[in-house]
Amino acid sequence: MSAYLFPPPAVAALPVTGQQARFPINRIFCVGRNYAAHAAEMGADVDREAPFYFTKSAAAVMESGGVLAYPPGTRDLHHEIELVVAIGAPAFRLSKARAMEVVWGYGSGLDMTRRDLQARAKAAQRPWDLGKDFEGSAVLSALTPAATFTPRAQRIRLQVNGAARQDARIDEMVWSVPELVADLSHYYHLVPGDLIMTGTPAGVGAVNPGDRLTGSVEGLAPVEVTLGPAD
């Protein structure tokens, strides 16, 4: 039995609708600019040659329903509601036709973003890590097995304090779920526990301590979080 210098981190995991067992999380891949209207509101063009990605660590995961302390180092925290895809089987160099075979289920997620830090990184042509990957930056709902949900034209929405901020359809994504899974599998050996946050529609904006965010993808468990004061 291995000995460790200090206790290893607990396994990040999400509840599953209708089941007692939880879904353990390995990696989180995030898709950038996957809705044309969102790309436009950020002053960017959609790259229709290939999707592009950034990542979040498992330490970024917060289960829906909690209180997220306003994160350090930013004065411009933004919400981004997204469809989340959960991988349930090994996948490497899959075709688009076979990509859905490895999808275990789906959820709703919030990609919380330190927009000022992301903008600074973009201006300096540097990675987005400080803007995107921090504790609580991936707020995730319970997962729904793929047997009971098929991505089509379901609405994806977000409200802040009851007021609508984002409202679109998931079939407006530039890159579909099978296209994303197949593409990622040509760069990584995908494994059970990997998640894909598939990008956000237009309407992103700043949130502040005290705000309550409620997001949903029609047919899936909603995602909720309340912003607390800064640490």
TrEMBL record:
Which GO molecular function, any one, fits this protein according to its record?
A: metal ion binding
A Pfam cross-reference name = FAA_hydrolase
Would the keyword Metal-binding turn up in this protein's UniProt record?
yes
- Domain Fumarylacetoacetase-like C-terminal, chain residue ranges per copy: 28-226
Record keywords? Hydrolase, Metal-binding, Pyruvate
- Tell me which positions the record assigns to the signal sequence: none
Q: Which InterPro entries match?
A: Fumarylacetoacetase-like_C, Fumarylacetoacetase_C_sf
Q: PANTHER family recorded for this chain?
A: ACYLPYRUVASE (PTHR11820), FLUTATHIONE S-TRANSFERASE (PTHR11820:SF90)
Tell me the protein's name: Fumarylpyruvate hydrolase
Species lineage, top-down? Answer: Bacteria, Pseudomonadati, Pseudomonadota, Alphaproteobacteria, Rhodobacterales
